[in-house]
Specification:
The protein is of the alpha+beta class. The protein contains ten helices and 14 strands. Strand 10 and strand 11 form a beta hairpin. The termini are close together.
């Protein structure tokens, strides 16, 4: 992995995309404001994805009104594991992963036990907008829990890893695996302590990682080296990410994918304002890749062709 320097001149030489330029040139320049609700509301994202035959985690139920919180047990009847999350949440806030239950006692991945009242309180907080963008009233989604693929067994004791693919104008530009840790409470969110691991766009092989903006080579909890990770179904994952552009027409898009052991690759979430830590995880800047993709002109290829072109363009980069 290349060394990172703190001087602006050095970062510019490496093609690092800075936040202001990302916001002005790429987010504002390629994402029409009218299309934000497609990705800011996870229920709307799920509806669009399913209409386009893109797989998503199964929806168990939705809690929209406070009077429904008292009947939460009815929605959870027959489910021992599930995820409760805000439809309009951001940065992983408000996501509660339940890995088992004993009657009305619910278990988290770290062994913590929660009462039914705790789940009801958490759900009520979601409805009140505690975790949503701008604090706006929200609804709580209950989804089936993802079961990690076998090749992630040594890394996923605290939760399920997901794959972030940055898609520009329909072409995958960069990818990283986000791996939950004890510090992140089983969530694949870098802000909360998950590890971001760079993934070679051409072949799906992982390299080094980053946690709390510090470069690391092994999982902080298990001492497992990241360079032994490889992504199954790599082309299928990239095509799935690329197709997210087709349903949203957002030119600068973060696509979060998971690989379920039983159901394969699925779309987890979409993000119209993807962060920049993906550069640190991969040890290279985004800007040269974005400029190459910009130079391709009008987007006329289908998702599979776009993936093939991007993998060839960034092979060995």
């Amino acid at each position: 992995m290349k060394q990172w320097f703190t001087t602006p001149r050095a970062l510019k030489r490496m093609g690092v995309l800075a936040m202001n330029r990302r916001n002005i040139e790429f987010i504002f320049g390629y994402n029409e404001r009218s299309r934000y609700p497609m990705v800011d509301d996870k229920l709307e994202t799920k509806r669009l994805a399913e209409a386009a035959n893109l797989k998503t985690p199964p929806l168990i139920g939705v809690v929209k009104y406070h009077y429904e919180v008292a009947k939460l047990t009815d929605k959870l009847s027959g489910y021992d594991e599930f995820v409760i999350k805000p439809s309009k949440g951001s940065a992983g806030k408000g996501i509660l992963v339940i890995t088992g239950r004993e009657g009305n006692t619910f278990l988290k991945g770290n062994g913590e036990r929660l009462s039914l009242k705790s789940l009801q309180r958490h759900t009520a907080n979601i409805l009140s907008g505690l975790h949503s963008l701008g604090g706006q009233p929200d609804c709580a989604m209950i989804e089936g829990r993802i079961h990690f693929a076998e090749n992630f067994a040594a890394l996923a004791a605290h939760g399920v890893p997901d794959l972030r693919v940055l898609v520009f104008r329909g072409y995958p530009a960069m990818a990283m695996l986000r791996i939950p840790t004890k510090a992140s409470d089983g969530k694949a969110n870098l802000h909360q302590g998950a590890v971001g691991v760079g993934v070679d766009l051409a072949n799906g092989h992982a390299s080094g990682g980053v946690q709390f903006n510090k470069l690391i080579k092994k999982h902080p909890d298990f001492d497992s080296p990241f360079n032994e990770i490889w992504m199954e179904n790599w082309e299928e994952l990239l095509v799935l990410a690329s197709r997210a552009y087709d349903i949203t027409k957002l030119g600068y898009l973060g696509v979060d994918l998971v690989i379920d052991a039983r159901h394969g690759p699925q779309v987890l979430e979409l993000n119209a304002r993807p962060g920049l830590a993906i550069q640190l995880a991969n040890g290279c800047g985004l800007l040269p890749r974005l400029e190459k993709l910009k130079a391709l002109g009008a987007v006329t290829e289908d998702a599979a062709a776009r993936v093939s072109r991007a993998r060839e363009m960034f092979r060995g980069v």
